[in-house]
Automatic annotation (TrEMBL):
Protein known as: Exo-alpha-(1->6)-L-arabinopyranosidase
Alphabetized InterPro entries for the sequence: Cellulose_deg_GH3 (IPR050288), Fn3-like (IPR026891), GH (IPR017853), Glyco_hydro_3_AS (IPR019800), Glyco_hydro_3_C (IPR002772), Glyco_hydro_3_C_sf (IPR036881), Glyco_hydro_3_N (IPR001764), Glyco_hydro_3_N_sf (IPR036962)
GO molecular function: beta-glucosidase activity
GO BP annotation list: carbohydrate metabolic process
Domain of life: Bacteria
Biological role: Catalyzes the hydrolysis of a non-reducing terminal alpha-L-arabinopyranosidic linkage in ginsenoside Rb2 (alpha-L-arabinopyranosyl-(1->6)-alpha-D-glucopyranosyl) to release alpha-D-glucopyranosyl (Rd). It is not able to hydrolyze alpha-L-arabinofuranosyl-(1->6)-alpha-D-glucopyranosyl (Rc).
Family: Belongs to the glycosyl hydrolase 3 family.
Pfam annotation, one family: Glyco_hydro_3_C
Domain Fibronectin type III-like span(s) in chain numbering: 686-755
Keyword field contains Hydrolase: yes
UniProt keyword terms in alphabetical order: Carbohydrate metabolism, Glycosidase, Hydrolase
Length: 788
């Protein structure tokens, strides 16, 4: 038996043995990938020339729809199948997720390609098959779960982990090894189109939910991939792929912690780089980030894969490389192991080696990491077979999947305002208007298969049974309702605008359903490349809302969106406001359940709802000068509804806060305990949030920061005691000398139900000397909930 086939040996030892007998070309092929995007032959690569001559390749595509940035522009230079696999292959890209294929056809294709790969390399090594899986498996007929921003609204890590487990089980069942999720991006500007793909604006919430996803997916034997490492959502003006101007302190204290949590706490297997440059350094070429931070500081031992064409971006977009060989060398030297989605620059690695741009040792370092991953996945086993364990008849939209999707959707819906009109009276006549009620795709995120792939023909095909809002409302209540579109998501007035307004005037209650349709690169109002200039409601949707409000009929505003929109000009005239963040295939029933009272809303905002359209692109995690307006600016940055906010049909109080000590050492810990009580006659759930404030520090600190939370289920009249254990490390920050420190002095701890609704703070004095915090610090705040 070959050493690398011996399953009794550690994966890294098997990988090293295999590496030692591979040729240079065989090694390079393990860092390569192939994406069969169409039937045409790949366009041959031109001879390497200077950057200026390559600029002509990077042009806006005339294609009607693309599933990745500049997909058509980057056809130039990609390798065909024969040259990609002659000697082996690292990754196969999106066999199920590129075109509408059945499970059976996809499984057959994957097996055929894997057999060819195995036959074309001396060691019989198959490729890693990867797929997108942010809102569920991005494949025809697979369950579309709520978007990640809706996971944030649930504040329920265990439910996110359960969802990821089901996604992982489906991926594993059809032969997929790696999933490109979750996103651990922390929202910094609501105008960015990919807000819907994030878990929110707070690093602790994002990190906790993202780590739960990693655990769920990897428990099924599928490797998770963190993206986008790092600072991608902080691009200038909220533009996709724009440069990031960020200091080291914000990077360390806001953007990096979620990734560190998933590496240290979740043992994630893979990481994907960000497209952006940070202060002029593209992440794909950053040895500091990809090696020094990720590996040397945090101990990450997995693979780094490129975001699609980001190695090519080094030459074509960032202009830090003169040709493909130079770009490839920069990436590998930085610590980027695999070029995705197909091989362009890495096919020039041999030229880079010959030119002295890269050393053999640097190449070997990347290759052994890929081989180690393959060993862990069982791909180096002597008995590996492409159809072993594959279920070609797998139901990707099983009842079990639907049940979890329904639970997530119900727990994510947020009640922002209610003057008593909700729950709807059973016999009240309704006039429903707006674009959301008639198009179920509004419930689905950008990376769902219907919006990501099926929408390229311009139709509304989803490949799934998805109940729309009229069906859900009719099933949930006996009262009559009329339905009129009024306006579209993007376009102007519909033919029935006036009819919709007249119907609202004649009804007991008007329900206006407004929001987003996810798309790509300007093809929607939310999603990748669908950035906005301000936070006004899309298109002419605000015009419909204004017209309905003017009728005087009590109006319930239902928002189904991927980002928060400014509601200050409407909120005081709405009788109720319901916010749903792309709630997935079960979204209609979840929304109808909240409207009728069958579901007691327990969602809480993972992002704030702005007051004005243009003055609040940033988030609650703000320094004093970013929050105060009086005497400073004519623009008030405070939100209409703050981070963490949400109402319920139950009522809750927080009482009796206490700390276990008023002093703790700089490496000690303290317990903060509070009682939460359901003061109503209906069972419900409240999210108890713990915030830290640092009144005096050696650098400017946020006014408050979430450091712990617990979603607590309570029966009518029930009380529970919630205890947070706060280690001194949780108070640490990047000091004036750019070292992470715990600083002696007073900190303030306060429980609340939002960032702006907190109990009076309790002071704890940190004693001792200023402590530099070593790597491996405490990243979480354990919480225990007991009967009061």
């Amino acid at each position: 038996m070959n050493t690398w086939n011996d399953t009794s040996l550690p994966a890294d030892q098997r990988a090293a043995a295999l590496l030692s007998v591979m040729s240079r070309q065989e090694k390079i092929h393990q860092l390569a990938s192939f994406w069969e995007r169409d039937e045409e032959e790949a366009v041959p690569a031109p001879e390497p020339v200077d950057v200026g001559d390559h600029d002509d390749e990077v042009v806006a595509s005339e294609a009607a729809h693309q599933v990745a940035p500049m997909e058509d522009a980057f056809k130039v230079g990609r390798q065909g199948w024969e040259e990609s696999v002659d000697g082996g292959l690292g990754h196969l890209t999106r066999i199920y997720g590129t075109d509408p294929v059945s499970v059976a056809d996809g499984a057959a294709k994957l097996a055929r390609l894997q057999r060819d790969i195995v036959s074309r390399n001396a060691f019989g090594i198959p490729a890693i098959a990867h797929e997108e899986c942010l809102t569920g498996f991005t494949a025809l007929g697979a369950t579309v779960y709520p978007a990640a921003i809706a996971w944030g609204a649930t504040w329920r890590p265990a439910l996110v982990e359960q969802m990821a487990g089901r996604i992982g089980a489906d991926l594993r069942a059809v032969g997929v090894h790696q999933g490109l999720a979750p996103l651990l991006d922390v929202v910094r500007d609501y105008r960015w189109g990919r807000v819907e793909e994030t878990c929110g604006e707070d690093p602790y919430l994002v990190g906790t939910l993202g780590t739960a996803y990693v655990r769920g997916l990897q428990a099924q034997g599928v490797h998770a991939t963190l993206k986008h490492f790092v600072a991608y959502p902080a691009s200038k003006a909220g533009r996709n792929h724009a440069p990031v101007s960020m200091g080291q302190r914000e990077l360390e204290d806001v953007m990096l912690p979620p990734f560190e949590m998933a590496v240290r706490e979740g043992d994630v297997a893979s990481v994907m780089n960000s497209y952006s440059d940070i202060d002029g350094e593209p992440v794909a070429a950053s040895r500091h980030l990809l090696t020094q931070v990720l590996r040397e500081r945090w101990g990450f031992s997995g693979t780094v894969v490129s975001d699609y064409w980001s190695v090519r971006f080094l030459q074509a977009m960032h202009h830090v490389a003169g040709d493909y060989a130079h770009a490839a060398a920069l990436a590998v030297r930085a610590g980027l192991d695999v070029e995705l989605p197909e091989t362009t620059c890495y096919s020039h690695l041999e030229a880079a080696l010959d030119a002295g741009l890269l050393t053999e040792a640097e190449l070997d370092t990347a290759v052994v990491r890929v081989l180690t991953q393959k060993a862990r996945l069982g791909l180096l086993n002597a008995d590996w077979e492409p159809t072993a364990g594959v279920d070609a008849g797998r139901d990707l939209d099983s009842p079990g999947n639907r049940a979890v999707a329904r639970a997530l959707a119900e727990e994510s819906v947020i009640l922002l305002k209610n003057d008593g009109v909700l729950p709807l009276a059973p016999d009240a006549s309704l006039a429903v208007s707006g674009p959301v009620w008639e198009d179920v795709r509004s419930f689905l995120g950008c990376y769902s298969f219907p919006n990501h792939v099926l929408s390229r023909d311009g139709g509304r095909t989803t490949g799934l049974e998805i109940r729309d809002l009229p069906e859900a409302l009719r099933a949930a209540r006996p009262g009559g309702a009329t339905f009129h579109r009024g306006v579209g998501f993007i376009d102007g007035r519909a033919d029935d605008f006036d009819t919709a307004v007249d119907a609202a005037a004649a009804a007991d209650v008007a329900v206006v359903t407004l929001g987003d349709i996810a798309g790509l690169f300007g093809g929607g109002t939310s999603g990748e490349g669908c950035d906005v200039v301000d936070l006004g409601l899309p298109g002419r949707q605000g015009e419909l809302l204004e017209a309905v409000l003017a009728t005087g009929t009590p109006t319930v505003l239902v928002l189904v969106t991927g980002r928060p929109y400014a509601l200050g000009e409407y909120a005081d005239r709405c009788a109720a406001i319901v916010q749903a963040f792309m709630p997935g295939v079960e979204g209609a029933d979840a929304i109808a359940g909240v409207l009728t009272g069958a579901v007691n809303p327990s969602g809480r905002l993972p992002v704030a709802i702005p007051n004005g359209r243009g003055g609040q692109p940033s988030t609650y995690l703000a320094a004093p000068l970013a929050w105060h307006a009086d005497g400073i600016s004519n623009l008030d940055p405070t939100p209409l509804y703050p981070f963490g906010y949400g109402l319920s049909y139950s009522s809750f109080t927080l009482t009796d806060p206490a700390v276990s000590a008023t002093r703790m050492d700089a490496d000690g810990r303290v317990d903060y305990t509070v009682t939460v009580t359901n003061t109503s006659d209906r069972a419900g759930a409240e999210v108890v949030q713990l915030y830290l404030s640092d009144p005096v520090a050696e650098v400017v600190r946020p006014l408050k920061a979430l450091i712990g939370f617990a979603k607590v289920d309570l029966e009518a009249g029930e009380s529970k005691r919630v205890t947070f254990t706060v280690h001194a490390d949780r108070t640490s920050f990047t000091g004036v000398d750019y070292r992470r420190i715990v600083e002696p002095g007073q900190i303030l701890l306060a429980a609340g139900t939002s960032s702006e609704d907190r109990l009076a703070p309790l002071a704890v004095e940190i004693t001792g000397q200023r402590r530099v915090v070593d790597e491996g610090r405490v990243l979480t705040t354990p919480v225990v909930v007991t009967s009061a």
